[in-house]
Amino acid sequence: MPIDTTGANLLISLGKIALAIAIGLPLIVYLAQDSLIFYRQPLSDARRADVAKRFAAVQEIFIQARDGTKLQAWHAKAGGPLVIYFGGNAEESSWMLDELRNAPGVSWLIVSYRGYGASGGSPGETALVSDALQWFDHAMTLPGVDPKRIYAFGRSLGTGVAVALAAERPVAGLILVAPYDSLAAVAKRYYWYLPVDLLLRHRFDSIALAPKLQIPLLCIIAERDQVIPPEHGERLYAAWGGAKQKIILGGAGHNSTDDDPAFWPAIRKFLGLS
After folding, report:
1. What are phi and psi of 70, to 5 degrees?
2. Cβ-contact 175, 153 below 8 angstroms
């Protein structure tokens, strides 16, 4: 009597497919994580010309990173405090120049991450934090800058960079917009089926630093943020060790915080301008 092995062969085939998925998918995510986290936005020639035409007082400045990488930023001088800006993971940061009219009397250093704007190199947590430290040290040498009035402003991904900077340098205060507790915590929300703790190289573990930080914090959370849900910012805020203020932007989403009428007044007040 012939033996039918169709069922057994099918189970074996399904098992091989499942094993391939179990091994292959995490491997693909591990190898692709840089492109999943960092959406590089280079500065086009047209945009650079537009900035030069419309913002004559803004200076494009360059420094050389410790590993030789050329880094670029925009310096807008207006007296008052200096704010170092670290943007989101898909920002070509020169867009912020259009927003500076909302904070008259504030000087800005708007940083372009590696691989963004006109900065060379490739982004990564270690490199971005090292570059942030170097930008702060450079800011201390800029004419007219009061070393005791240098603030850091982080948005989305950039909140992790700003917190890491604050842990190493004497910033006067932190402005965090759409912040998160750690990138690992956010990743687990989206990739719950993967061993995120084993795979993630760029952790930006802000909540581990928060209890030790005694500097003032302005935490701005978008109530309807679907990219970084509000609870991630709430956890970071709860863990903060210093003076802190929280603003919840009712109705705002991840990319519409600046349109909320409470956004810029809160920032101006935090910087001591109103």
Report:
1. -85, 125
2. yes
How many of the other CB atoms lie within 10 Å of CB of 34? 14
Q: Contact at 8 Å (CB) between 187 and 193? A: no
Half-sphere exposure of 53 (CA within 13 A, CB side): 6
Domain segments of the chain as ranges = 1-37, 41-270
3-state SS of the chain? CCCCCHHHHHHHHHHHHHHHHHHHHHHHHHHHHHHHHCCCCECCHHHHHHHHHHCCCEEEEEEECCCCCEEEEEEECCCCCEEEEECCCCCCHHHHHHHHHHCCCCEEEEECCCCCECCCCCCCHHHHHHHHHHHHHHHCCCCCCCHHHEEEEEECHHHHHHHHHHCCCCCCCEEEECCCCCHHHHHHHHCCCCCHHHHCCCCCCHHHHHHHCCCCEEEEEECCCCCCCHHHHHHHHHHCCCCEEEEEECCCCCCCHHHCCCHHHHHHHHCCCC
Distance of CA 224 to the CA centre of its chain: 19
pTM for the predicted model, two decimal places = 0.90
Q: Supply the mean pLDDT for the chain.
A: 90
pLDDT for 17 equals 38
- Condensed to tens digits (0 to 9), the pLDDT of residues 49-97 reads 999 999 999 999 999 999 999 999 999 999 899 999 999 999 999 999 9
Q: Which two tokens stand for residue 16?
A: 């091989």
What integer pLDDT is reported at residue 18 of this predicted model?
41
- CATH level 3 topology of 41-270: Rossmann fold (3.40.50)
